[in-house]
Amino acid sequence: MESRLVDFYGRVARKLRLSVIDKCNFRCNFCMPENPEWIPNEKILAFDEITRLVRIFSTFGVDRVRISGGEPLVRRNIEKLISELAHIRPIRRLGITTNGFFLAEKAAQLKDAGLQSVTVSLHSLRPERFSFVTRVNSHSKVLDGIRAAKDAGFENVKINAVIIRGYNDDEILDFAAFAYEEGFNMRFIEYMPFDGKRKWGMDKVVSGEEILSKISKRYQIVPLEREAGSTAINYKFVDGGGEFGIITSITRPFCSDCDRIRLTADGKIVPCLFDIHEYDVASLLRSGESDLEISEYLKKIVKLKAPGVESLMKTSVELKHVRPMYRTGG
Ligand code: SAM
Ligand code: SF4
Question: I want to staple 306 with a disulfide (CB 3.0 to 4.6 A). Which of 28, 76, 181, 275 is the partner?
Answer without folding.
Answer: 275
